UniProtKB/TrEMBL annotation, chain A:
InterPro entries to which the protein is assigned, alphabetical: Calcineurin-like_PHP, Metallo-depent_PP-like, PdeM-like, Pesterase_MJ0037-like
GO terms for MF: hydrolase activity
Domain Calcineurin-like phosphoesterase: 37-136
Protein name: Metallophosphoesterase
Length: 238, 843
């Protein structure tokens, strides 16, 4: 196999999966990297969620944007992608980009420099983020892949989406473990939310009904050191 | 301290208004000495702490100053302004307030006093609350949360301007929690409104009465104390330990072996109250008793997770003496009057001498008759503990926990509450807060940080100025930014954080809840437990064996599964750690073979066997045994410091052993001992001082190791969640929508991670660490133990397991080693999948 990966060690902590014939690295940090396209996909950053809450009186720590950007910076530095696709809900609300602290804006712009950057419109941020470079699109087709925020109701081979914030739960020896996960069945893939303050929803929830072929569903649960691929039959609701 | 009865009689005429004297006479009663003494002190303007056993007429004593004063008060003339609240009564339980309304209403009516009494609790309808604001009763019976709400209303000062007395019931139980901190701050506020306010505290016996005496009065002059009246005596309870004909088990908590003997005692008595320590024990005992209940005696179950209506039915039946036995957890601990209980059975060890005394006080609610109680140890260590508790009860020893400093999260809530009431000046509020005993040593910089937190979150990154909840005016007063802040505050007041729990509802077997929703609700169960169940699992709840059918939204569906065995045994609920005092007593007993004579023969034999095979620890020593077993090496330590301290010790020792190359694999902690197992021979390592036990148990483990472990412990996340909710960082409820427990849990965990990595010294993290150190981790107790055992560690390297080690070795595998091994479980699951399906989807 001959992937143009910048660092060979990355393969060890990531799992290679196939989506509609395209090969991708499921990174345990919650991003998807397509080595052949040099494309990095990240979903549901929900930047400025903290200040969005603060506006309504819940003064939760204003460090979520910084924390999210720092992690994003790290994966971008590792993969050096040519293309970055932010799969929607990049900002928690329409005013998010405007509220963002100047230092964070600069940090983000530095990351964007020298690569193609796509903001896929999400339900939280349907408009282009204020005063930021990059191209805002409703959806994006590249090769056999289709990037959009919400998974479509009818099956689309090669669809990469976010929106649902999937997590999975297993029970082993009387104990329950819940983790964010990539959810895929070989045909489509739903990405975990990347933002520091984003919650998650079990892949067995009704919201996912009809999206996957259950026999081939695999939850790629995010571990501290690696990804754990767990087959759908082992998953628990709740 | 208590006056002679005859003197008291003479006093009665002087102190009591005539109608009271007459009423006592008609009843054929005489006022008790302590009742008159309290009245005299109150009349001379003092605040008083009354410590008395149950059945001593505490309630009447507490209200006599108010009632006599109200009796002498001239009637209100038409057109004269309405008078405010005269007396505020605060109890930890809603039910207690309701109970008092009934008990107090009777003498008030019989004496013919022009006194109005009303309750105000979470259950009081809003129209009644409105009315109470306009036409306050003379005596208002309420809870700490309701007081906080009253204080946060903008007419608070006027509402309380006529207040004379605050009566605090069950003070010993109120002061030990964050509710107590909130109440202390509320009391300080009331004293600011009404400087000559008097307090009357009613309490069961406590170890340090002076702490409560300071709590009751302003600490403007540090150390000031209320007056104290102690009623001793009451007949000495008759307590025995069940000397079972059956074998007492090595480990476990069910005491199932003793069921027939317990049933025999129930048959012999009129009404038996059976206390257990956890809800799962209650469920189990209830099942077991019904299994042998050939005479179908009315035996009921009562614990905090059951549906309220169900609990009320049991309480009512009890009051009417319609029950022969009630299996209960701590929900019945407090001083509510129940029927004629003539026997208390305590199943499992009591964990503290004071707790035992209070529970036994339930039997025969008259002071002059001896209470009768039987202790049922569930395992051999509990036999020792019961014996120790029994000796302590006879000696009158008290081991209530010492009071801790007030929580900063509670202070934050109070500060916002004050601002909701009226704009405040920080200097004045700081002085006021420090008059509350739990906050007497609060420093100004910390107080200012709390205000900053309330205003904008108190972050170093000053991003939220424009979203401030409170703002300072030009005059330096802090006021709320907009009325929505007050509305939010009112929805979230209080310090009681509910564990995420789901309703348990009956459905038809096999329906998975999809078709029928109609069945009745049995109560609530913690979400964490339900998460471990799969469809078809059976478990015990509400005295029934139930089959888990599924979860739908916020409800758990179950069906009846009579006759099957409950497959899943564990079900949480309150657990108390062994008190320091009892721990010391148990160690003393082990060290003194003469005291073994009082123990059942089989238990004494066990100790003799231990002395023979290994060694028994001296009273102040720490015994450590090492031995191989299977393909593992074991180390068992016997600190007797309680489960929490042992758990913390286990976490820290495992880290150290790991560094020393012992390859520890796991550990398990009980109230009595701690066992760690490893791949390397720890016995050999200790013998060759690689490391020595003295180094391993050095106190410095409470430094860096503790910090490092703290950093990513799930315990801290749970504590942080509580602090975040209490301090108002996260809302329990938001106008118009209720958050589910899960959503709150997830987001506070995420917030914790972010805050810890970006601002580790934030005031809320500071509050979290303090809480965890005192509560969940028992670090203080661990520190005391480590300093006590310095130079006193006895190591016994054995060829095989010792008799004393059997109980804890039996716990291995039964108790989940919590939280830290999630990755291993995921690994297991992933490996299983790989085995079953091949290295699927990996290229």
């Amino acid at each position: 196999m001959n992937f143009s990966l910048p660092r060979a060690t990355l393969i060890a902590e990531a799992d290679l999966v196939g989506i509609a014939g395209e090969r991708a690295v499921c990174d345990r940090r919650g991003v998807l990297y397509f080595p052949d396209l040099r494309l990095l996909a990240v979903s549901d950053l929900h930047l400025e969620k903290g200040s969005s809450f603060a506006r309504r009186g819940a003064l939760i720590p204003p460090y979520d944007t910084g924390a999210t950007l720092l992690r994003l910076q790290a994966v971008i530095a590792d993969y050096q992608p040519r293309i970055v696709v932010s799969l929607g809900d990049s900002f928690h609300d329409g005013g998010g980009a405007e509220r963002m602290h100047q230092s964070f804006r600069e940090q983000l712009e530095a990351m964007m420099a020298g690569r193609d950057w796509f903001w896929v419109a999400g339900n939280h941020d349907p408009e282009a983020p204020a005063d930021l470079p990059g191209e805002t699109v409703r959806e994006l087709a590249i090769g056999s892949l289709l990037f959009r925020h919400e998974p479509s109701k009818q099956r689309v081979e090669g669809e990469i989406s976010g929106h649902l914030h999937p997590c999975a739960r297993i029970v082993q020896r009387g104990r329950s473990v819940r983790r964010r996960c990539f959810a895929g069945d070989g045909g489509r893939m739903i990405m975990p939310a990347f933002g520091a303050y984003t919650g998650s929803l079990n892949v067995l929830d009704r919201a996912y009904a009809g999206l996957f072929q259950l026999e081939t569903l695999v939850a790629y649960m995010l571990g501290a050191e690696r990804i754990f691929a767990i087959s759908g039959s082992m998953l628990r609701p709740g | 301290m208590t006056e002679q009865p005859r003197l008291a009689e003479q006093n009665a005429a002087v102190l009591l208004p005539e109608p009271f004297v007459k009423w006592f006479g008609e009843k054929g009663w005489a006022p008790r000495a302590h009742q008159l003494e309290l009245l005299a002190k109150a009349q001379s303007g003092q605040s008083v702490l009354l410590i008395a056993p149950t059945g001593a007429g505490k309630t009447l004593a507490g209200f006599l100053p108010s009632l006599t004063e109200l009796a002498n008060r001239p009637r209100r003339k038409p057109g004269q302004a309405r008078r405010g609240i005269h007396t505020l009564y605060i109890s930890p339980l809603k039910a207690l307030a309701v109970d008092i309304e009934r008990n107090l209403g009777k003498p008030v009516e019989e004496i013919g006093l022009p006194v109005t009494i009303e309750t105000r609790t979470g259950d009081t309808p809003s129209h009644k609350r409105q009315r109470q604001k306009l036409a306050p009763p003379d005596i208002l019976l309420t809870t700490p949360e309701q007081l906080a709400l009253l204080i946060a209303s903008n007419d608070a000062r006027r509402f309380f301007e006529d207040l004379r007395y605050v009566v605090l019931d069950e003070l010993h139980s109120l002061v030990t929690s964050k509710r107590g901190h909130l109440l202390a701050l509320g009391l300080a506020r009331l004293r600011a409104f009404v400087p000559d306010l008097q307090t009357i505290g009613l309490s069961a016996t406590v170890a340090e009465p002076d702490e409560l005496r300071r709590w009751l009065v302003s600490q403007a002059s540090p150390g000031d104390m209320s007056e104290l009246i102690v009623v001793t005596g009451g007949a000495k309870p008759e307590i025995s330990i069940l000397d079972s004909e059956e074998r007492v088990p090595w480990a476990g908590h069910s005491a199932r072996y003793a069921t027939p003997e317990i049933y025999r005692e129930i048959k012999r008595h009129k009404t038996t109250l059976l206390f257990v320590n956890t809800r799962s024990q209650a469920e189990l005992l209830f099942q077991e008793l019904w299994r042998v209940n050939e005479d179908t005696l009315p035996i009921a179950l009562h614990h905090g997770s059951l549906d309220v209506a169900q609990r009320r039915r049991v309480e009512k039946a009890m009051g009417e003496n319609a029950l022969r036995a009630i299996v209960a957890t701590s929900t019945l601990d407090l001083g509510i009057d129940w029927g004629d209980v003539d026997l208390v059975v305590h199943v499992g060890a009591p964990k503290g001498a004071s707790r035992l005394a209070q529970r036994i006080g339930r039997a025969n609610h008259r002071m002059d008759e001896p209470s009768k109680a039987i202790l049922i140890p569930a395992n051999r260590f509990e036999v020792l503990e019961c014996r120790a508790a029994l000796d302590a009860n006879y000696l009158g020893a008290q081991d209530t926990p010492p009071l801790v400093n007030g929580g900063l999260d509670v202070l934050a809530q109070h500060v916002l509450g004050c601002a909701c009431g009226a704009p405040f000046h920080p200097d004045a509020l700081f002085d006021e807060v420090r008059t509350a005993a739990p906050y007497a040593s609060l420093d100004r910089p910390t107080f200012d940080r709390v205000i900053d937190f309330v205003a904008t979150g108190g972050y170093a990154l000053r991003n939220y100025e424009r979203y401030a909840r409170i703002r300072q005016t030009k005059e330096g007063l802090w006021r709320i930014s907009n009325p929505a802040v007050a509305q939010q505050y009112r929805l979230n007041v209080g310090t009681i954080i509910e564990v995420p729990a789901l309703n348990v509802r009956y459905v038809q077997a096999g329906s998975r809840g999809a078709a029928s929703r109609g069945g009745r609700v049995l109560g609530k169960i913690e979400e964490a437990f339900l998460e471990t169940l799969t469809h078809g699992d059976t478990f015990m709840f509400a005295g029934k064996i139930l089959r888990f059918e599924g979860i739908r939204e916020n409800e758990c569906f179950v069906s009846n599964a009579p006759g099957s065995d409950a497959k899943v045994p564990y079900y949480g609920g309150g657990k108390f750690p062994l008190s320091t005092y009892l721990a010391e007593q148990v160690r003393a007993m082990l060290d003194d073979p003469r005291r073994w004579k009082k123990l059942p023969e089989q238990v004494a034999d066990w100790l003799r066997f231990q002395a023979d095979k290994s060694i028994l620890p001296k009273r102040d020593d720490l015994l450590i045994e090492t031995f191989p077993r299977g393909n593992r090496y074991y180390m068992v330590a016997y600190p007797f410091e309680g489960r929490l301290a042992h758990q913390t010790l286990g976490m820290l020792l495992t880290r150290r052993l790991d560094r020393a190359g012992a390859k520890p694999v796991g550990f398990v902690a009980t109230d009595y001992a701690l066992a760690i197992w490893s791949l390397a021979d720890m016995g050999w390592m200790f013998k060759n001082r690689k490391p020595s036990l003295a180094t391993l148990f050095d106190q410095d483990m409470l430094g860096d190791d503790l910090e490092a472990w703290f950093a990513d412990s799930w315990l801290l996340k749970r504590t942080f969640r509580n602090c975040a909710l209490i301090s108002g960082l996260i809302e329990k409820r938001h106008p118009g929508k209720e958050k589910s427990g899960r959503q709150v849990t997830v987001s506070t965990d995420l917030i914790y991670d972010v805050l810890r990595s970006h601002e580790p010294d934030h005031i809320l993290l500071q509050a979290t660490r303090t809480d965890a150190a005192t509560g969940l981790l028992d670090v203080g107790r661990l520190a005391e133990m480590l300093s006590r055992i310095r130079g006193r560690i006895m190591h016994k390297n054995l060829e095989q397991i010792s008799p004393l080690a059997v109980p804890i070795m039996l716990e291995i595998g039964k108790m989940p080693v919590n939280g830290e091994a999630d990755e291993t479980l995921l690994m297991d699951a992933a490996t299983l999948v790989e085995e079953a399906m091949g290295p699927e989807m990996t290229d």
